[in-house]
User: Fold this.
Amino acid sequence: MMILRLETYDGEICQLPTLLRWDMEFTGAVPCDSLTATCPYDPDMAAVLPRAVRFTALQEGRVMLRGVVDAYEISLSRQGLLASIEGRGMAALLLDNESEALTYGRALLSEILGNHVLPYGITVDVRQDVSGG
Assistant:
């Protein structure tokens, strides 16, 4: 039996009800392992799911996968209300912070910001380009 525990950004640990289905994909870290799990929805989960940032999947007391919660969904089915959790292994933290590799001969600040900062929605007021030798 698979057990899924969620950890919130403020340190609360919550064990989900008995999982109805789950799917783990082990990729050898390229790009990274993943988990999708579904369980019956409990109203107490309304306070936990929006704050969930990490998960631990255990089977027979053994950790199968630890990772980052990417998304959750509440849906209505013939079985009633269901909660589905999607997450990726801890390598997701590195993957999500990768920027495109570029080679610069002489990089202007506006080029660096335009290629590595602005694509992430961060705006910076650049007053003057400065380039070193």
